[in-house]
Amino acid sequence: MSTSIGRIRRPLIGGMVAAGALVATLFTGTAGAVAAPEDLQPGPEPTLHTQEAYAPEDDFTAKWTRADARQLKRLSDPAAPSRENSMPAALTMPTVPQDFPDMSNGEVWVWDTWPLTDEAGNQYSVNGQEIIFSLVADRSLGFDDRHVFAKIGYFFRPAGVPADERPENGGWTYGGLVFDEGVTGQIFEDQSYSHQTQWSGSARIMKGGEIKLFFTDVAFYRDAAGNNIKPYDPRIALSVGHVHANKNGVKFTGFDKVTSLLEADGTYYQTGEQNEFFNFRDPFTFEDPNHPGETYMVFEGNSAMPRESAQCTEEDLGYREGDPYAESVDAVNASGATYQIGNIGLAKAKNDDLTEWEFLPPILSANCVTDQTERPQFVFQDGKAYLFTISHRGTFANGIDGPEGVYGFVGDGIRSDFQPLNGGSGLALGNPTNLNFAGGQPFAPDYNQHPGHFQAYSHYVMPGGLVQSFIDTIGTHDDFVRGGTLAPTVKIDLDGADSAVDYTYGNGGLGGWADIPANLDVNSGGKVQ
C-alpha cells in the first residue's frame, strides 16, 4: 500500500466538486441552501415535517422516511466522473491526506472518541488537562478485528494551547485503559462468553471530580469459527470513578464496579431473540433545556419487530399524496428493505445517582431507510434541538443511497416531528463520495470511488459546530492506507434547517489533527484561557 496522495483531490471551496446540473450555493462561511429546487435531480418530494415538540414521555416517534432519504440521490451530480465527489461541497468533509500522524505513537488503534462533558454538552478540562475517552485495541490485532477486542482507553494533553502550536498529532498522551481486566465482564449472568468488550458511550463530569462513565458493555458467545452460539449481549452500563490531574498528567481511581442500566426490551427496542444482528448501544446523557433537572439518554436501537416478519408502512415511506416518484408499500417490503429498521431511543433517569432508568418510546425511526443510527447526540442551539447520528453507506436499505457521515435533524424539543436538515436529506457532513459508483469495503475500496469515501467515521459534534471523527481508510483499491487514529477536526455551521461545512476553518476546512478542545475548566469554573 502506497502513501502517495497524488490522486487525492481537495473539494472546491464554495461550490460543487464536479460540474453538472446540480450547482451549490456559494459558501461564504455561513450556513445556506446547497441547491435550488430546480437544480435537484428528478425524484420524490421530501416528507413534510412540522418540527413541533411533544412531551418527552409522549408516544410520538418522528420518522426519517424513504421520501426524505431519497433526497440524497437528488443532491448527487449524475455526471460526476470516476474518483470525483458527486455530493455538494457544502455538505462534504474536505479530503484528508494519506500521510496522517498517529496520536498514540504506535501504541493502539483508536476509533470512537468522546470528551468529558456536563449535562449541557460543555467540554471540560481538569486542572489544566484536557481528557478524552476512546475505543482502543492493541496494534497487534488486524484493524478490522478490533471490534470484539475493544477497550475504553483515555488520552490527555495541556488545555488552552492553540491547535497551530501543538505537535502535529494533536499533542495527546495515551494514559492507558480505564478498566482493569475482568471488571466489565462481571455483569453478565452467562460467563461462558468467548469475547467481552466495551463499546462507545459518554462521560459526565460531576462535582468533586467524579466521573460517570456511560458505555456499552458487550458479551459475545461465538464458536471457534466465529459463528454465534447465541446472540450477543449488549448492555447500557455505568461505572463511576474520580479523575486526578495536575501538570504532570492524569490518572483515575474507581471504575472498579459496573452497573447494568438497560437491556433491549423487545417492545420499543429490538432484542437478540427478534434479530441476532440487532443494535443496542452508544448512550449519550444530557439535560433537556425545556425540562430542567431531568436527565435523559439517547442511544442507538432498532425497531422492535422480528427480523423475518418486519414490515414498513405508508408513514415510514412518507410520500406526499400523488407524488409520481412514490414507491408502494408492497414493493418496498418485498425488496428486503425491512432488514434496515434503525431507530434512536430515549430513556429517562429515575434517580439523582443516574443508576435507575426507564425506557421511553423512540424519538426517531428509520424503518426501511437504514439499519444503523450510531452514536446519537443532541446539540441545543438558538432554541432548537439538533439531533445528530451517523450512518454507513452500506447500511442504507435497498433503494436508498448516501455518503458515510453525520446526519442531522432539527425540532423544537427532544421529542419532535424532526425535520431532516438540508432539503430533507438529513445529510450534515458526508465523506467525499460518488454515488454513481459502488463503494466497495474499507479493506477493499472500489477503484472508481473517491479516495475519501471511507476516510472518516464515528463523528462527534462539539460545542460551536466542531466535529471530530477517526480515520478508517483513505484511497482506492490500488492505493489506500488504513487509519486507526483521529482525523482533523472540521466545523459545520447551523442555521435553522440548513447547515454547511465552514471552509474558512483551519486549512481549507481541515482543523488540527485530533483537536478536541475543552471550553470550560472544572476547577476554575470558567472558560479555558
UniProtKB/TrEMBL annotation:
Its EC number is 2.4.1.10. It is an enzyme of class 2 (transferase). Keywords: Glycosyltransferase, Signal, Transferase. It comes from the Bacteria. It holds the Pfam family Glyco_hydro_68. Residues 1-35 form the signal peptide. The keyword Transferase applies. One of its GO terms (molecular function) is levansucrase activity. Belongs to the glycosyl hydrolase 68 family. This is Levansucrase. It comes from Agromyces ramosus.
